[in-house]
Specification:
Alpha-Beta Plaits; 28% strand; 2 domains; 10 helices; 35% helix; 11 strands; 7-stranded mixed sheet; alpha+beta
């Protein structure tokens, strides 16, 4: 048996949509899974020198988590990974790895879990659903955790819906800078004002509407945040300047991609100057940066069994 799993990159938050809005991008990790004598992982491409390839690999950890969840032993396998999503970039590389492991284990066991259950398990591992939901479903997705009680026990269920979206050009600047999720979370305040909460709620709704209609002028006005972005920009040299440079070069809207350190810009057509200006801004702050010109992926994770 050979199982091929493809998972797209994602960008989350989308400005004001903190921990709730996510978008799948046309940049993919592809993993081939085959039965083996022992568990092992080989990584090619992005992160080949950084990603653990032993038992601490996130794909293996996720696969074992699914086995524990269904109460069955998992047969050993080898995962051959060809990665195009830069790790630690704010483009959902960990979400892609988690989903790869869960989908691989599910396929090897004869699909005991539905996709909705895999989404809940992936969200539990990630801590929130805003990356795993669009990575699994594709397109623009709004998601939240529905906490309820069943038989006296707390149960977490993910509510996720794919929303319509118009055609977009996406430019991502990925600086050579390490910003861990823990650092990015630690930078956030424990309390926010009512005014700031209302600011984000109203603009998150406008973001989804402008992405549906293609009103990129509206998207530019709506893609502002008061909950997380200003706190995280202080941690990333050149990021604030890169955002300003992108706007001046023709981008309709700009934001941090997820928690950063990448900056993502949206426009109606390819704008080479947007990427070039962001790259220069990071260089002036002492960081090299790579530019990715991407489209939106309407497709989510795919599993092929041969």
């Amino acid at each position: 048996m050979k199982i091929t799993i493809k998972v797209p990159a994602t960008t989350a938050n989308l400005g004001p949509g903190f921990d709730s809005l996510g978008l799948a991008l046309d940049l993919w990790n592809e993993t081939t899974v085959t039965l083996a004598m022992e568990f092992s992982v080989t990584v090619h491409g992005e992160g080949a020198q950084k990603i653990p390839q032993g038992k601490n690999n996130l794909i293996l950890r996720a696969a074992h988590r699914l086995g524990e969840c269904v109460g069955r032993s998992l047969l050993p396998f080898h995962a051959e990974c060809v990665n195009h999503i830069p790790p630690g970039s704010g483009l959902g590389s960990s979400a892609a790895a988690v989903l790869t492991g869960l989908l691989a284990a599910n396929a090897l066991m004869g699909n005991p879990l539905l996709r909705e259950e895999i989404l809940s398990l992936a969200s539990e591992m990630e801590g929130h659903p805003d990356n795993v939901a669009p990575a699994l479903m594709g397109g623009l997705v709004v998601s939240t955790v529905d906490e309820g009680h069943a038989d006296g026990a707390m149960r977490h269920k993910i509510i996720a819906r794919q929303l319509p979206i118009t055609s977009l050009e996406v430019t991502v600047a990925v600086p050579e800078f390490n910003l861990s999720t823990r650092q990015a979370r630690a930078a956030l305040p424990e309390q926010v004002s009512l005014r700031d909460a209302v600011h984000n709620i109203s603009r998150a709704l406008l973001v989804t509407e402008s992405l549906r209609t293609g009103e990129l002028d509206l998207l530019g006005k709506a893609m502002t945040d008061r909950l997380h972005q200003s706190h995280r920009l202080k941690l990333i040299p050149g990021a604030a300047s890169a955002m300003e440079a992108a706007k001046e070069s023709g981008a309709s809207a700009v934001a941090l991609s997820g928690a950063g350190p990448s900056v993502i810009a949206f426009s109606s057509k390819a704008e080479p100057a947007v990427g070039e200006s962001m790259k220069r801004a990071f260089e002036e702050a002492g960081l090299q940066a790579r530019i990715f010109h991407l489209g939106v992926s309407s497709r989510g994770a795919e599993v092929q069994i041969r």
